């Protein structure tokens, strides 16, 4: 006779209240084909659920969707029959998320994109386990309340680890999806993009609890109210940038160039566009990444043409040289400032390089990637320090190159070193007809809000855009179809945001939360009584 706890065959059946909550029923084959209980179907569903948050980023830019996009993934992981299955749901969901936010890499890296996504997706396996541990079954109100802190903390750990440059950098941090939401940008000035990510995950967790557990709805509502109150407090009390005048900055976007002499074509077009800015009363002109294809020390003719342009405009020009250096071995990407008297000597060499795009990690092992995609044939060389440059009559600017604008710590460091304006020189021409250009430009809004400093995002082929000290858009951006210039009245600001002052404190707080969870789990395991050993069988005497 079958009783609870005996061995029995079972299957999992979806209920109306929770399409991903399953109950055991006897006398059915396990993982029956045609049911969602098939491991392959469940795996595909996990990957699909993980991909959903990508819709909150540009180009769709459904920012509001971020606050519920994780709910299906959470519901799936909480319904896992075992902790191992929950970890697998976390891994496959992470794989889906990484593919979705990096899908524009597929034409360049091909199958290697999936390999990288699968490896990075492993970071979400512990998060899936945490979801089941805290929300599986019918969690007590205390466990549901703890989930509102623990799950955002676990998510921040994933974002922190994958933000390392060697793992691809912080592209697609969940909080960055809120780049056009004023309250979220104000929150970024308090705790950076990390605090916004934590807020988004906390709201998703609360919604999942409300949808599945009546007994825990009170703490869930209380937690969501607390999140709202904290956001309101940040809105009300966080320091705001103090206006400090304006400067005139122009960006030069030459557009797509094709052909064997595209570097020379690009320079000619940039020169033509820059000359059209004469008489615009500019303080600075910014060209995009790789806007100059030759070292200026080796090409005095190009340096002379840039100097003549600076004199004609009576403004400094920040170019970006992508070339082999004459004074140092190797190829560098360098921001170089040119004034009316020639190159000023202010030079910033890019420090953080794009894996596979600008160097191949462990080339001796992974060099084959160059044969299946557009990985770098030769590694670029790294700079060794950030640089704050002085423009004109004393304006201090901090340059960044390409995906360095995705790193919160770099813009924070430049601000602490005295930069009044942040400048990002970028090129996304390889990904011209994808979501990448708009998403890259949107990161400048988050960096501006975090630091309380305006940011100029200048590209070769779009999207070029400018954002004020609170992350607000300044003027109209130049889209990917434009070969043009745009001049902006960029507002300056003084003051120090809480993020610049205290740094990545939400990440440190998340570490404390997870450490306390580990301590509590360890104490619970220590107090759990050991299982009793079965009594030895009695010996029967035979006479």
Automatic annotation (TrEMBL):
Pathway this chain belongs to: Protein modification; lipoprotein biosynthesis (N-acyl transfer)
Enzyme Commission number(s) of this protein: 2.3.1.269
PROSITE patterns attached to this UniProt entry: CN_HYDROLASE (PS50263)
Listed InterPro entries: Apolipo_AcylTrfase, C-N_Hydrolase, C-N_Hydrolase_sf, LNT_N
Membrane-traversing stretches: 111-132, 144-164, 184-211, 218-237
Keywords: Acyltransferase, Cell membrane, Membrane, Transferase, Transmembrane, Transmembrane helix
Chief site of localization: membrane
Domain CN hydrolase: from-to ranges: 247-492
Membrane topology reported for the UniProt record: Multi-pass membrane protein
Intracellular or extracellular location(s): Cell membrane
Family, as annotated: Belongs to the CN hydrolase family. Apolipoprotein N-acyltransferase subfamily.
Protein name: Apolipoprotein N-acyltransferase
Record organism: Streptomyces flavofungini
């Amino acid at each position: 006779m079958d009783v609870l706890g005996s061995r029995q065959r079972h299957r999992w059946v979806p209920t109306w209240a929770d399409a991903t909550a399953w109950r055991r029923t006897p006398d059915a084959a396990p993982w029956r084909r045609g049911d969602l209980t098939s491991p392959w179907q469940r795996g595909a569903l996990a990957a699909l659920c993980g991909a959903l948050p990508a819709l909150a980023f540009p180009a769709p830019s459904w920012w509001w969707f971020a606050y519920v996009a994780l709910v299906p993934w959470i519901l799936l992981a909480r319904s896992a029959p075992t902790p191992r299955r929950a970890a697998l749901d976390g891994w496959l969901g992470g794989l889906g998320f990484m593919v979705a936010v990096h899908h524009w890499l597929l034409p360049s890296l091909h199958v290697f994109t999936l390999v990288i996504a699968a490896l990075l997706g492993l970071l979400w396996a512990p998060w899936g386990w945490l979801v089941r541990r805290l929300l599986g079954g019918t969690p007590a109100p205390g466990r549901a309340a703890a989930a509102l802190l623990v799950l955002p903390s676990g998510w921040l750990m994933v974002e922190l680890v994958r933000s390392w440059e060697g793992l691809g950098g912080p592209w697609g941090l969940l909080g960055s999806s809120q780049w056009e939401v004023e309250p979220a940008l104000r929150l970024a000035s308090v705790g950076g993009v990390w605090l916004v990510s934590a807020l988004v995950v906390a709201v998703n967790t609360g919604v999942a609890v409300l949808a599945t557990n009546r007994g825990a709805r009170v703490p869930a509502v209380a937690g969501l109210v607390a999140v709202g109150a904290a956001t309101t407090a940040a809105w009300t009390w966080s320091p705001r940038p103090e206006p400090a005048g304006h400067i005139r900055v122009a960006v030069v976007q030459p557009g797509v160039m094709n052909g064997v002499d595209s570097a020379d074509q690009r320079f000619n077009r940039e020169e033509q566009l820059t000359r059209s800015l004469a008489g615009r009363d500019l303080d600075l002109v910014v060209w995009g990444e790789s806007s100059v294809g030759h070292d200026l020390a080796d090409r005095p003719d190009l340096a002379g043409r840039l100097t003549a342009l600076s004199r004609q405009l009576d403004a400094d020009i920040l170019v970006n040289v992508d070339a082999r250096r004459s004074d140092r071995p190797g190829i560098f990407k360098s921001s170089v400032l040119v004034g009316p008297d020639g190159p000023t000597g202010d030079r910033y060499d890019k420090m953080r390089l794009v894996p596979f795009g600008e160097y191949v990690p462990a080339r001796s092992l992974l060099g084959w990637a160059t044969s299946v995609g557009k990985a770098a044939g030769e590694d670029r060389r790294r700079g060794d320090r950030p640089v704050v440059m002085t423009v004109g009559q004393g304006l201090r600017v901090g340059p960044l190159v390409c995906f360095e604008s995705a790193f919160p710590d770099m813009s924070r460091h430049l601000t602490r070193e005295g930069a009044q304006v942040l400048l990002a020189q970028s090129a996304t021409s390889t990904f011209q007809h994808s979501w990448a250009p708009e998403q890259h430009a949107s990161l400048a809004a988050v960096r501006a809000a975090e630091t309380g400093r305006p940011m100029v995002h200048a590209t070769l082929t779009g999207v070029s855009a400018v954002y004020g000290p609170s992350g607000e858009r300044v003027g109209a951006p130049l889209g990917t179809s434009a070969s043009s210039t745009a001049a902006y009245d960029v507002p300056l600001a003084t003051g120090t945001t809480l993020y610049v002052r205290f740094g990545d404190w939400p990440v440190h707080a998340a570490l404390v939360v997870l450490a306390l969870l580990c301590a509590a789990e360890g104490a619970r395991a220590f107090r759990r009584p050991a299982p009793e050993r079965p009594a030895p069988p009695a010996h029967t005497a035979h006479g």
